[in-house]
User: What shape does this take?
Amino acid sequence: MAVILATGIATLDIINEVACYPAEDNEVRALSQRISRGGNASNTLCVLSQLGHQGFLMATLIDEADGQVIEADLHRQQIDTRFCPRLSEGKMPTSYVTLNRQNGSRTIVHYRDCPEVDLATFQQIDLSSFDWLHFEGRNVPELEKILQHCRQNNQNVPISLEIEKPREGIEHLFEFADWLLFSKHYAQAKGFSSAEEMLTILPANYQATLTWGAEGAYGWHNGEIIYSAAPQLDRVVDSLGAGDTFNAGMIHRLVANRSLNESLQFASQLAARKCQQYGFENLV
Ligand code: FRU
Assistant: This one.
């Protein structure tokens, strides 16, 4: 069991499942609707909790009805929220998700009126009791200060950094992480057409993973690429949070000093399992 701090966001996800992705200006009926807690860091912790770890979340919580629903679910998942900054004004980040029953794709419209975590609040945490620190790559200028603070105050604890979206200046953060967890979306937005193309421009002393959808996942270690094929899936029903699940699988194996190859295989299988079921319940 490891003690893991994840910093990012918690959201309310309103998920409408539709028979096929609607055309613009259409009106369609949802086949089903569910409302659940989401957010990359919170999803990753939810899976890590199922894998037996003690997770602490660092994400802004707003004292409104949705904030209470989200926090209750975090507690149900044994995720500790004591470090979360709490605000009395604003709105919890909310994602309106259209889930396509044909292929499990998820299209997200995200609304937020919620400040990001800042250094002053993060600094209040005693980092000495954590075995692993995980960060969502967001709020880049402030996160750079937070990562610098982690490196100055607890040099030895491993840091993973999720690079999911191409945010301005996000590349400045790379040097602070032991593990960079890249998405295909980021790689493609940066103009790379294959995982190899992107990973081989990283310095040889960087360690990284890059998921590439149904093709599989790639790793970068000692200047070499490691490839793990994705399990063949007959049907994808829900890909929402598959990347967050993959990241949890990687952290679970890496914190136990398993090899990159083994960690990639484990994380890919876990993410595949996630795609074959709705939500995250009983994933492990
Ligand atoms: C899935 C997810 C959702 C959330 C959205 C935020 O990866 O974390 O739960 O609404 O992404 O970007």
